[in-house]
TrEMBL record:
<keyword id="KW-1015">Disulfide bond</keyword>
<keyword id="KW-0464">Manganese</keyword>
<dbReference type="InterPro" id="IPR006045">
    <property type="entry name" value="Cupin_1"/>
</dbReference>
<dbReference type="GO" id="GO:0010497">
    <property type="term" value="P:plasmodesmata-mediated intercellular transport"/>
</dbReference>
<feature type="binding site">
    <location>
        <position position="114"/>
    </location>
    <ligand>
        <name>Mn(2+)</name>
    </ligand>
</feature>
<dbReference type="InterPro" id="IPR014710">
    <property type="entry name" value="RmlC-like_jellyroll"/>
</dbReference>
<dbReference type="InterPro" id="IPR001929">
    <property type="entry name" value="Germin"/>
</dbReference>
<dbReference type="GO" id="GO:0009506">
    <property type="term" value="C:plasmodesma"/>
</dbReference>
<feature type="binding site">
    <location>
        <position position="114"/>
    </location>
    <ligand>
        <name>oxalate</name>
    </ligand>
</feature>
<feature type="binding site">
    <location>
        <position position="109"/>
    </location>
    <ligand>
        <name>oxalate</name>
    </ligand>
</feature>
<feature type="domain" description="Cupin type-1">
    <location>
        <begin position="61"/>
        <end position="207"/>
    </location>
</feature>
<keyword id="KW-0052">Apoplast</keyword>
<feature type="disulfide bond">
    <location>
        <begin position="32"/>
        <end position="47"/>
    </location>
</feature>
<dbReference type="InterPro" id="IPR011051">
    <property type="entry name" value="RmlC_Cupin_sf"/>
</dbReference>
<comment type="similarity">
    <text>Belongs to the germin family.</text>
</comment>
<keyword id="KW-0479">Metal-binding</keyword>
<comment type="function">
    <text>May play a role in plant defense. Probably has no oxalate oxidase activity even if the active site is conserved.</text>
</comment>
Length: 216
């Protein structure tokens, strides 16, 4: 009996070791600069020939001012850092500018944790733990403050001050994903009755909110 137990434990360890050896999330070379001309489809982006890599592949300029994607509805501008040399390194970065009264609405990143550094102004920033606790962890952040959000948890920021706020966010994935809860519920094709039951409200209220999301 003892011998059988030992052999079973040894088999489990061997299987576990094989799995660890077969899964390596780390880069297998110094760098893998994105090759935008490649037609290869893979879990990530194809690499440029190392002989063709130059210093510019690791550089991005222009974060000294707002730019990129603008949301007039929510009052923010997001300027994503585009560095080909970050390919396969498991990180991404963005500058976020939020107008007074603006928000980056309730959302989550399914594949990344996030840290945000306030460069200018102040914001109310936080996240909510998972069910069943649903505990709020939030505070007002000012210039120089950093706040961390665990992977996959719902979070938000609100510029409830009187001056514009600027943040620099780093995420622990090359492709963190972005799920906006409001858009998922009201801008997609979920049936009105399902959304109403989910939010403990009526279909008329759901239709009214959906109409707001359809407006530009």
């Amino acid at each position: 009996m003892a011998a059988a137990t030992f052999l079973l434990a040894l088999a489990v360890v061997a299987l576990g070791s094989g799995h660890v050896d077969a899964f390596d999330p780390n880069p297998l070379q110094d760098f893998c600069v994105t090759d935008p001309t490649s037609k290869v489809h893979e879990n990530g982006l194809a690499c440029k020939d190392p002989a063709a890599v130059v210093a510019e592949d690791f550089h991005f300029g222009g974060l000294d001012k707002p730019g990129g994607t603008t949301s007039k509805r929510f009052g923010f501008t997001a300027n994503q850092v585009q560095i080909p040399g970050l390919n396969t390194l498991g990180e991404s970065h963005v500058r976020l500018d939020v107008a007074p009264g603006g928000v980056f609405p309730v959302h989550y990143h399914p594949r990344a944790a996030e840290t945000a550094l306030v460069l200018e102004g102040s914001v109310y920033f936080g996240f909510v733990s998972s069910y069943p606790d649903n505990k709020l962890y939030a505070k007002v952040l000012r210039k120089g403050d950093v706040f961390a959000v665990p992977q996959g948890l719902v979070h938000f920021l609100h510029n409830n001050g009187t001056t514009p706020a600027t943040l620099y966010a780093s995420l622990s994935s090359q492709n963190p994903g972005l799920v906006l809860l409001g858009n998922s519920l009201f801008a997609g094709a979920l049936p009105d009755d399902l959304v109403a039951k989910t939010l403990l409200t009526d279909q008329h209220t759901v239709q009214t909110i959906k109409a707001n999301f359809r407006r530009s």
